[in-house]
Amino acid sequence: MALGDSFTEGVGDVDSTRPNQMRGWADRVAEVLCAEGDWEYANLAVRGKKIGQVINQQLDQALALSPDLVTIYAGGNDILRPKADLDALMRGYEGMVRRFAEAGSKIVLFTGFDTVESPLFSKTRPRTAIYNEKVREIADQHGAVIADYWRWREFSDIRYWAVDRLHMNELGHALMAAKVLEVLGTQGITDENWSSKIQQPSLPDFAVNSRGEKLRQELGWAKEHLAPWVKRRLTGTSSGDSLSAKYPDYIRLTVDAN
């Protein structure tokens, strides 16, 4: 069972055959689990969701399906809002994790990505650090497993990121899937060797662009990605408002699933 926002929905890993036209690391993990063991998979994550929305819109539905294993990552969209009260939000987050723990689910929580090298999002780094410490405290309190995105420095490579600069691309999602399977293996939840079943395409060479080409890319990015994001913030809308969960009920997911 996967809960959360665009990170877990799979935004950036485009696949027109999938619901919402996205694959993503959670699908990739599920493909391995379903192929290698007696697993089924559900994914309730929808892009743009904040912590409160994940709690209100996904928690009860997930608990009703009695998951053996649940992954939760929410908070990135809250961190981007300076006025959001992280302490209050993380109290709700803890309550969500506690309900899964009381139900007997194994729980995987994610720390937030370190934006130290991001010109656009580096100012959110202190809030992400606070969020991460809260996640670690919650994990300690309820026996959850940590998938430590903050410490996985290879994700700082821009070749793992989509053109919107906010989401991982297919290479990033493939690497994340391998990382999550490795965490599950070291915790004895799955076979330790299953992470090797994620195909890792070779990274492309770094692009060498002229100053003019870089400027054109910056202007194109601002028009196609930054401006719509700012407009949604100003109008109180979300990119996920018209979308529903990719897999609201359990399925046995295969590479050819759609």
UniProtKB/TrEMBL annotation:
- What sequence ranges are listed for the domain SGNH hydrolase-type esterase? 2-175
Annotated membrane-spanning segments are none
Q: Does the keyword DNA damage apply?
A: no
Q: EC number(s) on record?
A: 3.1.1.-
Q: Does the keyword Hydrolase apply?
A: yes
Keywords from the UniProt entry: Hydrolase
Name any one GO molecular function: hydrolase activity
Q: Which PANTHER family match?
A: GDSL-LIKE LIPASE/ACYLHYDROLASE, PUTATIVE (AFU_ORTHOLOGUE AFUA_2G00820)-RELATED (PTHR43784), GDSL-LIKE LIPASE_ACYLHYDROLASE, PUTATIVE (AFU_ORTHOLOGUE AFUA_2G00820)-RELATED (PTHR43784:SF2)
Name listed for the protein in its UniProt record: GDSL-like lipase/esterase
This protein's species is Glutamicibacter arilaitensis (strain DSM 16368 / CIP 108037 / IAM 15318 / JCM 13566 / NCIMB 14258 / Re117) (Arthrobacter arilaitensis)
